[in-house]
């Protein structure tokens, strides 16, 4: 029994409100006036709350409702909950561009956004760019035609970025294409054929 009884325990808990859910093992009497044999004081926080948010968005033209932890990344929602694994995760730190999707028509890195930030928005992934009959999007066809891919890991992100690029910059020069694609990394191709693919894709799209 602590000197001072239960009131002394409560006094310590009030004095150390941010210690968290753990035990404190004291090597000597703490500066609280509590004397031997004070050795172990258990302080617990209120139960953690498990919070979830429900989102409504459009993905590849279809209305989607999803309930997620507020910390869920957009790429996690896309891949893990919606099963759209064409969107890749290369670095998870916003550097490689493999996770690029269109959010209301603009290219974004889905590992850099919370799913909640897409609430009410329209998301397009690589699965959503081909025609309903399976005909490839002109930019996809251009990557195939120009051999703009080897292993293909970067390709979904490259295609999504390229579509946004040519929509924003019709008639983009080679230098502009290279500059615009600097946020998408490719470890295989050396980029030359990717640039040619973007030029062909732009022409096919009438850009
Ligand atoms: S996985 Fe998102 S930028 Fe690399
Ligand atoms: S084709 Fe392999 S990473 Fe780009």
What keywords describe this structure?
207 residues, alpha+beta, Ubiquitin-like (UB roll), DNA polymerase, domain 1, five-stranded mixed β-sheet, two-stranded antiparallel ribbon, 6 helices, disordered N terminus
Explained architecture:
- With 207 residues, the protein is of the alpha+beta class.
- The chain folds into 3 domains: 5-43, no CATH class; 51-128, Beta-grasp domain (Ubiquitin-like (UB roll)); 134-207, DNA polymerase, domain 1.
- Helices cover 29% and strands 16% of the residues.
- The chain contains 6 helices and 7 strands; from the N terminus they run αββββαβββαααα.
- The strands form 2 sheets. A 5-stranded mixed β-sheet has the order 4-3-7-5-6, sandwiched between helices.
- Helix 3 (138-145) runs antiparallel to helix 6 and helix 4 (155-168) packs across helix 6 (192-204).
- The protein is globular, with a radius of gyration of 27 Å.
- The protein binds FE2/S2 (inorganic) cluster (FES) (2 copies).
- One FE2/S2 (inorganic) cluster binds at residues 89-92, 94-99, 109, 111.
């Amino acid at each position: 029994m602590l000197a001072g009884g239960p009131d002394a325990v409560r006094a310590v808990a009030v004095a150390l409100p941010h210690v968290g859910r753990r035990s404190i093992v004291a090597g000597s009497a703490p500066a609280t006036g509590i004397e031997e044999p004070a050795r172990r004081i258990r302080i617990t926080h209120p139960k953690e709350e498990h919070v979830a948010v429900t989102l409504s968005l459009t993905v590849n033209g279809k209305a989607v409702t999803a309930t997620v932890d507020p910390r869920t990344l957009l790429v996690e929602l896309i891949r893990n909950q919606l099963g759209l694994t064409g969107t890749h995760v290369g670095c998870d730190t916003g550097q490689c561009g493999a996770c690029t999707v269109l959010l209301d028509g603009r290219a974004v890195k889905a590992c850099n956004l919370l799913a909640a930030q897409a609430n009410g928005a329209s998301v397009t992934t690589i699965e959503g760019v081909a025609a309903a009959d399976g005909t490839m999007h002109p930019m996809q066809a251009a990557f195939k035609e120009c051999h703009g891919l080897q292993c293909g890991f970067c390709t979904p992100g490259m295609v999504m970025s390229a579509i946004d690029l040519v929509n924003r910059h019709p008639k983009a020069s080679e230098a502009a294409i290279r500059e615009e694609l600097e946020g998408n990394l490719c470890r295989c191709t050396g980029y030359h054929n990717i640039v040619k693919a973007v030029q062909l894709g732009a022409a096919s799209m009438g850009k």
